[in-house]
Specification:
Blueprint: H1 11-44, E1 53-59, E2 62-63, E3 67-69, E4 76-77, H2 79-90, E5 93-99, H3 105-109, E6 116-120, E7 132-134, E8 139-148, E9 160-164, H4 168-177, E10 182-186, H5 189-197, E11 203-207, H6 208-214, E12 223-240, H7 243-257, H8 261-273, H9 281-326, H10 336-349, E13 355-362, H11 365-372, H12 374-391, E14 397-402, E15 405-411, H13 416-430, E16 444-450, H14 453-457, H15 461-477, E17 482-485, H16 488-509, E18 513-522, E19 527-539, E20 543-545, H17 547-557, H18 560-580, E21 586-591, H19 593-598, H20 602-612, E22 620-625, H21 626-631, H22 633-645, E23 649-655, H23 664-667, E24 672-676, H24 678-681, H25 686-702, E25 706-710, H26 715-724, E26 728-730, E27 738-739, H27 740-747
Parallel strand pairs: 1-5, 1-6, 9-10, 9-11, 16-17, 19-21, 21-22, 22-23, 23-24, 24-25, 25-26
Antiparallel strand pairs: 2-3, 3-4, 6-12, 7-12, 8-11, 8-12, 13-15, 13-16, 14-15, 18-19, 18-26, 18-27, 19-20
Helix pairs in contact: 1-6, 1-7, 1-8, 2-7, 11-12, 12-13, 15-16
Bound molecules: ligand C2E and magnesium ion (2 copies).
Keywords: Membrane, Transmembrane, Transmembrane helix
Domain EAL: 497-751
Protein name: EAL domain, c-di-GMP-specific phosphodiesterase class I (Or its enzymatically inactive variant)
């Protein structure tokens, strides 16, 4: 049995080997003890004490599996406990175990609260010098040397061994048994092992049972049991050598003798074969350190992967969001935001490229949607985007800004790019429906802004788009399709328009807009018969504005109704005041075509006004320009009829200055024609002009309509008109438009009206 069992792999083998060795030792020792004690035991068996008598036994608890605290129930257990319980029982005691808190067994002997103390190899003197007495041997405990690595062991009495301090009593016994042995005591097993590993001691000595427990510690796997160096020590119960002590020892001896051999073996086997050793954190770390490290590493790896994946997903999400924001979902080209960014990026990155930005718009796209369906409209936009993208290089960009509005950042490249785009993009888009067999040509208006050197220093894509849009608007306003380049004047005009449209409401509120009156006179009667209300605007920023400028702008932007309703109401207020003063006459007010779109219930609106200001309806003469009748006859005629049915007078303004369509006169049911004399002073032969006017007057008269001539500037004109049958007149010859108070003064005769 010189075989040395080593290592973690041999852990179970060590336990088995130790158990076998223990059994062999026991077999020998027990045979002898049993033989020696059997006779006296038989003789004394009749004197067993009452089992109810308590015997307090002081034991250490750091010697698993001989004495230890069961972690399950906290009770002191072990081989020593079980054997002692049986021996005590047979001796008539009920053994109760208490943990020795003293530093050594010798000190514990002095503690009278223990009836007995164990384990002792032989009788010792207590710490205070009291002699002790011990029982017969309760069992033979095998002692084994443990070394680090394989060693040829010298005899025991030549060794330097390490032992636990708590085994001091045992050490004394060993010293007696093996004189010459050097023993160093250490506080803990870890200290013992460290001393062995550091070469401070040759081996460690301890109870084999305890080794079977201790060596289960994974970090002690380098320690080896030296079976050849095994010897056995007695395991006795001790107390002070007093009469009471002696009495207890005697009784216990009687119990010990009755301890059955098989019972002893069963107890030892039971404890030595149990896996009593519990791993602490350090053990787990030692045992599974690598595994834990690898698992930790794997976990960290997984976490890193998970974080990276999370980040990738976030990036993906952000990318998706960015795409949604930067790209147009319908066509796949950039959105307005995306175009802004991309264009800025490209212009910054390529200051050497001459760029232009175009703003492109399909004319009447909403009609396309209405006529062919939204899907066809979408297809057209996609087609346009696809064709355009095919032609763009990486230094160029296209974006859909909204609806049917596309912006393109394009190299100027002479006219080559434009010619190519015209052929490969615009022509195809124009023929989109025709190619599908439908009779509709798509019209595209484009405005182009060529970047100036300044634009490369202060990149403002929005501003450039605005410029291009201004040019596009010029094309659109012309009523044609095609393209136009931006110029500075357009931009200034655009800004002025914005100042007019955006400031209207405030201007009305702040009194910047006023109603002036231009007298209308009767040539023959030489008196003022009425007036035309004409508005004037003293703009807080732009100064005096002519209605010839702001009226068309407001008509287009949809703001003219707001202005006109203000004018109409002001006129009604003034008329009411003049009525009260006994001056009863009519005032002509201008109405725009877009007023009808803004308020189809205009006749009711006027009726309300005249009711509110207690005017008779014929005091309001509503002027509708001749051009409006020509462009939108049905609606205008309908409106005229309705207005007249309410008692209002309707006049056709500017007759003769526009696209006069004489046959309109028979269809349009107006009360009075306003003959515009401007063309008389215009180009051409004045003689012929006079002939035309003469015939017009005669024709209007023959049709039974009233008329008034406007734009009368001279006495000759006035004389001529009257002579031809048109005595009612309005013009600078008589008076220019006047503020209300000045007009009032003229009415009252306080100021003169020239020509009268
Ligand atoms: P309109 O309705 O034909 O008004 C006559 C315009 O001719 C006025 O110009 C008037 O000042 C001008 N005028 C009158 N007599 C003479 C003359 O002897 N010689 C010359 N050269 N011009 C004369 P104004 O006030 O600048 O108005 C221009 C146009 O603006 C008006 O033409 C009218 O269409 C529009 N307008 C003016 N006020 C309003 C308004 O309150 N509402 C609407 N919708 N349009 C208005
Ligand atoms: Mg007018
Ligand atoms: Mg007019």
């Amino acid at each position: 049995m010189r075989k040395i069992i080593r290592g973690r792999n041999g852990q179970r083998k060590i336990t088995l080997l130790l158990t076998l060795m223990i059994l062999l030792t026991l077999l020998l020792a027990e045979t002898m003890i049993v033989c020696a004690q059997s006779e006296s035991a038989v003789a004394q068996s009749g004197s067993a004490a009452e089992p109810s008598e308590i015997l307090t036994v002081g034991v250490p608890t750091d010697r698993c599996p001989i004495f230890y605290r069961d972690p399950e129930n906290g009770e002191i257990s072990g081989i020593g406990v079980d054997l002692m319980v049986t021996a005590a029982e047979k001796a008539g005691y009920r053994a109760e175990f208490r943990e020795i808190t003293e530093k050594s067994l010798k000190a514990a002997l002095d503690n009278e609260s223990y009836d007995v103390v164990m384990p002792f190899g032989s009788a010792l003197t207590s710490e205070s010098g009291k002699p002790s007495i011990v029982t017969d041997n309760l069992m033979q405990t095998p002692f084994t040397l443990v070394t680090k690595g394989r060693q040829d062991m010298p005899p025991l009495n030549k060794l330097h061994v390490g032992m636990l301090k708590s085994l001091a009593a045992g050490a004394e016994t060993v010293n007696k048994l093996y004189p010459g042995i050097e023993i160093t005591l250490y506080g803990t097993m870890d200290e013992c092992v460290k001393a062995l590993r550091d070469g401070k001691v040759d081996a460690l000595l301890h109870n084999s049972y305890v080794w079977s427990y201790v060596l289960q510690k994974p970090s002690y796997s380098d320690l080896m049991v030296q079976p050849s160096a095994m010897f056995s020590m007695d395991f006795r119960i001790g107390t002070t050598n007093t009469p009471a002590g002696r009495e207890k020892v005697a009784r216990l001896n009687r119990g010990i003798v009755l301890l059955d051999y098989n019972r002893r073996q069963a107890v030892i086997l039971d404890y030595t074969s149990r896996r009593l050793y519990r791993y602490d954190l350090g053990d787990y770390l030692y045992q599974y350190g690598l595994l834990l490290f690898l698992s930790g590493l794997a976990l960290v790896f997984l976490i890193v992967i998970a974080i990276q994946r999370q980040r990738a997903m976030k990036r993906e999400q952000e990318e998706k969001m960015r795409k949604m924001v930067d790209y147009d979902q319908l066509t796949g080209v950039l959105s307005l935001t995306g175009f802004r960014k991309k264009a800025e990026e490209l212009i910054r990155a390529h200051p050497d490229i001459a760029y232009m930005i175009s703003y492109n718009n399909i004319k009447d796209f909403k009609y396309i949607n209405e006529s062919f369906g939204k899907q066809a409209g979408d297809e057209l936009l996609r087609f346009w985007a696809d064709r355009s993208m095919e032609r763009l290089s990486e230094e160029e960009a296209i974006g859909r800004l909204e609806g049917d509005h596309f912006a393109v950042l394009r190299r100027v490249n002479g006219m080559e790019n434009m010619r190519g785009d015209e052929k490969d993009v615009f022509e195809l888009v124009r023929d989109f429906f025709i190619a599908k067999g439908k009779d509709n040509r798509v019209l595209i208006c484009s405005g182009i802004y060529v970047l100036t050197p300044e634009d490369y220093y202060h990149i403002d894509v929005d501003q450039m788009l605005d410029y291009a849009r201004v040019a596009e608007r010029k094309v659109r306003d012309s009523g044609k399709d095609g393209y136009a380049f931006y110029n500075q004047d357009q931009w200034e005009r655009g800004k002025r328009m914005a100042d007019i449209v955006g400031h209207l409401t405030t201007a009305i509120r702040d009194g910047e807009i006023r109603v002036w009156y231009q007298p209308q006179v009767d040539y023959k009667e030489k008196k003022i018969t009425g007036a035309e209300a004409l508005c004037r605007w003293e703009h807080n920023k732009l100064g005096w504005l002519s209605p010839g400028e702001f009226i068309p702008i407001l008509e287009e932007s949809g703001g003219v109704y707001e202005l006109n309703s203000f004018v109409w109401e002001t006129v009604c207020q003034d008329l009411a005041r003049w009525n009260e003063e006994g001056k009863h006459f009519s005032v002509s007010v201008n109405m725009s075509r877009s007023d009808i779109q803004s308020n189809p219930g205009l006749p009711e609106f006027f009726a309300n006004l005249t009711r509110t200001y207690r005017l008779s309806p014929d005091q309001l003469r509503i002027e509708i320009t001749e051009t409006a009748y020509v462009e939108d006859p049905a609606i205008l005629i309908e409106m005229t009829k309705k207005l007249r049915s309410y008692g209002f007078k309707v006049e056709m303004d500017d007759f003769g200055s526009g696209y006069s369509s004489l046959h309109m006169l028979k269809e349009v049911p107006v009360d009075r024609i306003k003959l515009d004399l401007m063309f008389l002073s215009g180009r051409g032969d004045p003689k012929k002009g006079r002939v035309i006017v003469s015939h017009m007057i005669r024709m209007i008269r023959s049709l039974g309509m009233d008329m008034i001539a406007e734009g009368v500037e001279t006495a000759e004109q006035a004389d001529f008109l009257c002579e031809r049958g048109c005595p009612e007149m309005q013009g600078y010859y008589y008076a220019k438009p006047l503020p209300a108070d000045a007009f009032e003064k003229m009415l009252n005769g306080e100021t003169e009206c020239s020509g009268l």
